[in-house]
Structure formats: structure tokens, C-alpha cells
Amino acid sequence: MAEFKQLSEEELALANSGPAVYANRVLIQTAPVVRITFVEQGVGKVGSSFRVAVAMPHQTAIEMANLLKALLADIEADLEKIRAEAEEQAKPGKQGQANG
User: Fold this and answer.
1) What is the pTM of this model?
2) Rounded Cα distance, 10 and 82, in Å
3) pLDDT tens sequence across 5-40
4) Residue ranges per domain, the chain?
5) For burial by CB atoms within 10 Å, which of 36, 52, 60, 87 has the most?
6) How far is the C-alpha of 45 from the C-alpha of 18, rounded, in Å?
7) 36 vs 30: CA distance, rounded Å
8) What angle do CA 49, 55, 56 make, to 5 degrees?
9) What single string gives the DSSP state of each residue in the chain?
């Protein structure tokens, strides 16, 4: 189970002190340490751009994965509900139905 703790004012300031670059693709290597590379994948003629990479021990990566899963559980459930509703609407006979 992920452990949550309140951030101190110093930790919060540190967390927000650097740039937040946009990334829409993640590349992960697991040996000899976990290296997570964040990339912005371009559209059309624009290629992918490296944004940042972070290397960490395996245990830290596991803790991060557990925290992300716990923090994003409600958002994931909402997205799954939206996806299921969209799939239901896309079924034959559901589009363009008129009432009455």
C-alpha cells in the first residue's frame, strides 16, 4: 500500500521550483537501475524530442509506481467509465436514434 505524507512548505517549494515540461511518451529501462525517459512525440514532420530522464534504484521505482497507481485510481475509474459509455454509444443501432 502506498504511503502518503503531507509535503512540508520546503518540499512543496522544491517540487515547484523547476520547469514542468510536457511529455506524451515514456520510455523505461529496468537494468542496471530503472531509467525513465520522458519524450514529447511530435505530429507530422516534427519528430520526437527528449525532455528529461531520471534514473533511480528499483525500490524507488516500485514506490513511485505504487504512489501513482493510488493517486490516479479515481481518475482511471472515471476514464474507464467514459470509455465504456463511448463504446456503448458506438454500437450499431445506438447512433442517430430518435425519441418518439
Assistant:
1) 0.68
2) 38
3) 788 999 889 888 988 888 999 999 999 999 999 999
4) 19-56, 58-90
5) 36
6) 29
7) 9
8) 150
9) -----PPPHHHHHHHTSS-----SEEEEE-SSSEEEEEEE---TT---EEEEEEEE-HHHHHHHHHHHHHHHHHHHHHHHHHHHHHHHHHSTTTTT----
